[in-house]
Amino acid sequence: MRKRGIILLSLMVILAVSLVAVGCASSGSQQAVSYRAEIAPGTLSVDEYAKYYPKQYDTFMKTSEMSNEGSKYGGSEEFDKLVQWPFLKEIFAGYGFAIEYNEDRGHNYTLEDVSKIKRINEKSIASCWTCKSANIEGIVEEMGDDYYGANFHDLKSKVTEGITCANCHDPQTMKLVITQPPLRDTLTRLGKDPDKLTTQELRTLTCAQCHVEYYFAGDKKVVTFPWDKGTTPDDILAYYEEKGFSDWKHAKAGTPEIKVQHPEFETFSGSTHAEAGLSCADCHMPYSMNGGEKISSHWWTSPLKTMNESCMTCHREGEEWLKERVFYTQDKVADTMATVGNVNVEAIEAIAAADAEGANKALLEEARALQRKAQFYVDWVGAENSMGFHNPQLTFDSLSKSLDYAYQAINKATEARTGVATPQFEVNAPKTNSETVKQMSKKS
Ligand code: HEC
Ligand code: HEC
Ligand code: HEC
Ligand code: HEC
Fold first, then answer.
1. For 68-109, what is each residue's pLDDT tens digit?
2. Which protein residue has the closest C-alpha to ligand 3 atom 34?
């Protein structure tokens, strides 16, 4: 009796679920909304799109909201990262990021923020406009690669729009498109056609137009994504080492350093959620009801503000429980990063002190090469905006590598100063069980 009751109940649940599913699919609201208008090609202004897609526009405008509510390490208020993480001011000495480095905020502020930040000076280059505006595609079409190295201020009058619908949508069909030249160039260089991507790829790659690590390549300072060897921190460091690229020379250590920029896409790649098939949009643009219509939220913000829509579609454990799991990861990443950051500062000080004492030049260069790597890995974690959530395993791997290189740099600087090498214990550990068994049988 009880068994049959349960079966009946399960059948009812299945029926109810499929009804809901059919209900969603047959409402047709998404198809209809996708093709409401044919906006003229080249239209950039949000106001034009807002006439036809008012609901997406409503959520888009919420990116002006300023609040850290629900979030512990992110949020939209523009707090100073140099106060939050004192080690950053030391590792960026001699570079603009030691002057001003703020927490990111909503898309609606990009033009205001890039115009007022103290890192921009009279010599700044136009490249800095690249991920702030919908005008860039057209400007690059007009000026070619000369755009990137031009003076920042000379282009001010051409940059009339912030990030608009046109950064991600074809105005006529509203299909997702990759518009930003640096991502188009990079995908093409790596043999992937930017116009032949699946919808699920586009739900991540439209964000990867900007939320990525990049550098200014060559004399023309072209914004370039260093993905030729892959997108992990190891791959990207190997790429920079091969090119001998550096952003600036550290004021104290004299090391040619790399500055990492917001590598959200690269960090997310390979994570539990990426491997489970999720895209950026699944958490950051969840479906939400707006005036009886189900639309993709265009309020890009911390998903901890919208957990019901962003997470609870898959996770059944309860919002508060899940949020505590996020904080569990983030707290541990933050604590570890603070420690690793401080050891990085000690490495810089050790090199500077050894240099001041006239230590062995060749050994000091070796110490600098190690410090450069240590700094790259800790900066990767600091510049990524999820405090480790996007990929906890990769984040701890980066912090561990940073700590190891930082201590090696300190030891090398000491050797350069005293002539005494620190003892090293370097063995090739078998690690896996099968390798261990193999080694054991070799010995016996
Ligand atoms: C940063 C990229 C980006 C920007 C900027 C952007 N969108 Fe979208 N938009 C998306 C993504 C991703 C989807 C989901 C598409 C899918 O899954 O097929 C989407 C979906 C849509 C849809 C389809 C219906 C829906 O809600 O899923 C419409 C209509 C739309 N956006 C309108 C707009 C308008 C209007 C603007 C400007 C006010 C805008 N978008 C700005 C990325 C963007
Ligand atoms: C054209 C470049 C560009 C594209 C495309 C873009 N972003 Fe952004 N995004 C930015 C910039 C720049 C900021 C920081 C703005 C500031 O601080 O003034 C930002 C900030 C954010 C923030 C932080 C908001 C806050 O309140 O702190 C989130 C979340 C975000 N973006 C998610 C996304 C997602 C998801 C996508 C893809 C659907 C995307 N972005 C596409 C450039 C872009
Ligand atoms: C599984 C859900 C999930 C996916 C998928 C995801 N994110 Fe996030 N993202 C988060 C969470 C959670 C945070 C941490 C927010 C916080 O600390 O308040 C975050 C933080 C961010 C932030 C900083 C937000 C802030 O408040 O400052 C940005 C920017 C961002 N993500 C961009 C991306 C991009 C780009 C992708 C795709 C490459 C992506 N995210 C994929 C859940 C996700
Ligand atoms: C489309 C489904 C889906 C969505 C949406 C989703 N997740 Fe997940 N999440 C998974 C899967 C699958 C796993 C791996 C299996 C598991 O642990 O259940 C996972 C694992 C996790 C884990 C444990 C693993 C880790 O990396 O720490 C946390 C924490 C988590 N998700 C948080 C979130 C948060 C927060 C959001 C919303 C911002 C979210 N998830 C949105 C599917 C999803």
1. 889 999 888 888 999 999 999 999 999 988 888 888 888 888
2. 280
Which bound ligand lies closest to the C-alpha atom of 262?
3
Query: Domain boundaries in the chain?
Result: 45-418
Evaluate whether 14 touches 7 at the Cβ level (below 8 Å).
Answer: no
Q: From atom 9 of ligand 3, which residue's Cα is the shortest distance away? A: 386
Beta strands 293-296 and 287-290: pairing type? antiparallel
Q: What is the rounded CA–CA span in Å between residue 67 and residue 105?
A: 9
Percent of the chain with pLDDT over 70: 92
- Rounded to the nearest angstrom, the distance between the alpha carbon of 146 and the centre of ligand 4 is 44
Neighbour tally for 122: CB within 10 Å = 7
The domain made up of 45-418 is a member of CATH 1.10.1130.10: yes
Buried b (16+ CB within 10 A) or exposed e, 366-381: bbbbbbbbbbbbbbbb
Structure tokens at 106: 């909503």
> For the residues 294-314, what does the mean pLDDT come to?
96
- Side chain identity at 22, as an amino acid letter? V
For residues 273 and 280, what is the distance between their CA atoms, to the nearest angstrom? 10
In the beta sheet, which residues pair with residue 256? 249
Which amino acid, 40? A
Model confidence pLDDT, tens digit, residues 159-218: 999 999 999 999 999 999 999 999 999 999 999 999 999 999 999 999 999 999 999 999
Phi-psi region of 291 (alpha: psi -120 to 50; beta: other; left: phi over 0): left
Q: What is the CA(273)–ligand 4 centre distance, in A?
A: 6
Q: Evaluate whether 134 touches 161 at the Cβ level (below 8 Å).
A: yes
* CB of 163 sitting under 6 A from ligand 2: yes
How many other CB atoms are there within 10 angstroms of residue 36's CB atom? 12
Q: 239 is written with which tokens?
A: 């790429």
Q: Does the C-beta of 278 come closer than 6 Å to ligand 4? A: yes
Cα(119)–Cα(82) distance, integer angstroms: 13
What does 415-437 look like in DSSP terms, one character per residue?
HHHHS-PPP--------SHHHHH
Tokens of 331: 């707290």
